[in-house]
Amino acid sequence: MSSKLKAKISAVGHYLPDYVLTNKELESMVETNDEWIQTRTGITERRILKDPDKASAFMAAEASREILAMRGIGPEEVDAIIVATVTPDYLFPATACLTQTMIGATNAFAFDLSAACSGFLFALSTGSAMIESGQCKKVLVLGSDKMSSIVDFTDRTTCILFGDGAAGVLLEPSDDENGIIDQILHSSAEGAEALMQAGGGSRNPSSHETVDKKMHYIRQEGRSVFKKATEGMADVSVEIMKKNNLTADDISWLVPHQANLRIIDATARRMEISKDKVMINIGKYGNTTAATIPLCLYDWKDRLNKGDNLVLAAFGGGYTWGATYVKWAI
To answer: Which of 131, 161, 177 is the last residue of a domain?
Structure first.
């Protein structure tokens, strides 16, 4: 038996804004309708953070407080905080640093990680390595995105998809066989222009021109992204099953990124997993980017049993994609 130290998920938490943006309300904002949205995406409503003084750090801090309360520890016990986000409060300081100060994690170091919709899996891998190396004992790994801040609500191809929210987990050393067992992560910028925010970085600094051209909003070529995402998420999910000699019967739950119900269904079919073993909450929240997978873990926490085999899978801008094999430890 391997004596390698493993990281385990010891607590989960979340935050969702109060405001619910329904498909019906979107009908009054842009040329679309409820049936069209539900048929193509599976989304019926999403949450929007309306307060202009609050952003991703606020949501990450609220999720962190719930995580710490579930674990029954104080913020001073946290060694590190990783926030996966593509909607940071600022380019710098890091959203994670703001989160750290908001919750009073005075002994932690903190940083952001940007991998779009795959961000939580990339952050989970990073946090796990920090536990496995012995560098840290308690790491908060969070996904937090205020997607409404970069969505053009006159663009019906994107405004129907995204919502705001945050969720995350606490990682600690495992004292048994449960924990983060394996991960496979991929990235490639080939074709990445089909899903991007072109303005605001050093390539296209903010200017009248970038604002006028709406370059600070997310832009997506739906058809090409759908094809890439379907292939990427399904392929990597099957890849991690084969690598770890897992059959569909061995897997308790597929925890997929909530981008589109058809992509989720295609991934489950490739894995030969029945739909009753797939976590799906896209209907209530839409695509909250880095927060979707931990939001699923939070929503299903009372149905998870110690030792359950989970496959977490995601695909996002970059392009980035990956899968993580977790044995549930709570």
So the answer is: 177
Residue 102 lies in a domain: yes
Give dist(CA 322, CA 34) in Å, integer. 31
- Name the 3-class secondary structure at 246: coil
Domain range holding 86?
Answer: 7-177
pLDDT at 115 > cutoff 80: yes
Condensed to tens digits (0 to 9), the pLDDT of residues 177-192 reads 999 999 999 999 999 9
CATH code for the domain of 213 = 3.40.47.10
Name the catalytic one among 117, 136, 159, 296: 117
Q: Is residue 251 part of a domain?
A: yes
User: CA angle, 28 as apex, 317 and 159 as ends, to 5°?
Assistant: 5
Cβ-count burial of 230 within 10 angstroms (0-12 exposed, 13-18 middle, 19+ buried)? Answer: buried
Q: Is residue 107 flagged as an active site residue?
A: no
Task: Identify whether residues 185 and 52 lie together within a single domain.
Answer: no
Matching residue, tokens 């940083």: 111
20 and 116 co-located in one domain: yes
Residue 204 lies in a domain: yes
Mean predicted confidence (pLDDT) in 102-106: 98
Nearest C-alpha neighbor of 78 from the set 132, 130, 119? 130
Please say if 257 is a catalytic residue: yes
- Of 14, 287, 296, 309, the active-site residue reads 287
245 is catalytic: no
